[in-house]
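Hello K.,

You asked for the raw outputs rather than the summary table, so here they are, unedited. I folded two proteins back to back in the same session to keep the settings identical. This is the first:
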Amino acid sequence: MEKNITCPLTEEKVKSLKVGDSVLISGTIYTARDAAHKRLIKLIEEGKELPIDIKDSIIYYAGPTPEKPGNIIGSVGPTTSYRMDSFTPMLLDKGLRGMIGKGLRSKEVIESIKKNRGIYFAAIGGAAAIIAKCVKKVEVVAYEDLDSEAIRKLEVKDFPVIVVIDSEGNNLYEIGKKNYLNFNSSEI
């Protein structure tokens, strides 16, 4: 089922999304990868304010390529999410509501998603140039020295994702594997 949501990503919106849903996201999301996550966690541990408001926000694990002339952003495909797993529970505890990436998440992240009523979306790897067309505005908001890994504020319209882990911990990767292993081609 395809659903449209607009950020901020409130708890009520998250509850309405179920594993396997196709979602089109509009509004503000942030890009951040592991180097930026490490800095965010250091600020939290030091009791300092974060450079972005993560409450009810979505972080997209991406590092855009340089934009071509006439474009506002280059290709912006998802990064493998497990690289952020050691940082994610603390960010979810601080109010982060959603994440976009690709690949499996750790048991600790899944438990934190459930505890904090968060959600994990997958973006389609290999579709980075198409995804870039959903970005309407981009601004570097923190850690410019990290170049492509700087935190960017993206204004997006109809950014396509799939719910991979919903707020109840249902995991599309596990469900898909189970369905595949239980598939009986003789029933076709």
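The second followed immediately with the same parameters:
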Amino acid sequence: MTSMPRPKGRPPAPRFGAIDLGTNNCRLLVASPRQDGFRVVDAFSRIVRLGEGVTATGRLSEAAMARTLEALSVCADKMRARNVTASRAIATQACRLASNGPDFLARVERETGLRFDLITPEEEAKLAARGCTDLIDDGAEGVLVFDIGGGSTEMSWIKLGPGAPETMAWTSLPFGVVTMAEKHGARDMDRAAYDAMVAEVAARVEAFAEAGPMAPLFDGKKAHLIGTSGTVTSLAGVKMHLPRYTRREVDGAWLTASDVARVSEQLREMGFDRRCAEPCIGPERADLVVPGCAILEGILRVWPADRIRVGDRGLREGMLIELMEDHHARTRRG
């Protein structure tokens, strides 16, 4: 079928690119704005484990940097091929922790042309929450948005009411699935070791007192959780018995607290080899999903909510929304 030519005088729709370089994953999203949000034009995700070993050595390893550079070259090629109008690339916990993180990002710019912002934990938490606002249930009075990353876990408590949602508190915990796996071991874990990990997380979450004013909403069942991480999407895929991971099936789905407890225990009991064979986990996540489950259960122990909304989205979507808003504002001024 021959495509219809674009009417003369109508400029091509702008395209925006967002790259999220985390401790475990490298992710790209290219999108064009639409009246109701945006349309995804291209996407890319690869597990690079950039932060592998950083907690022990304080440095990014040569092997991890090589894996990451290869993935970022793919991202740069895709954005050029898609004629991206404006873009933003961010780096998070691994590059924040590593003594050679800034040097690596300078190398990335020399070799790929991609310029990265090394963002703060506060901006990371706010971007993750911004990317998930349309997952908030209309009947809720508050939500806790959490992003369990490879090297850190960001949480934002948001109050709802007249006007725009308001972030009441946020925190960044200095651990994620990679760092917890390296600390505790995760290929095979008995129940006592798992419970100890949950208790460790809960103690750190409970120590953050600034979110205290939100507690009545959770106690009164007026709030729910939104999870944006691979841990939560994997849990949802396993719970649904999906033969292969499919974003459209998972994004926006709901889990209950009992679902989380049941599937988490199921994954722990599987052992490493069976998790490798699970289609919604696979070999690349088989040693990371159980620490992620422990982090989630630790959060639920302190902030109990029976409903958890699953989001296959987060930092990239938050960046895209901000890029499009900035473009719209400049267009109106111009």
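The first helix runs from residue 54 to 57.

Happy to rerun anything if the numbers look odd on your end.

Regards,
P.
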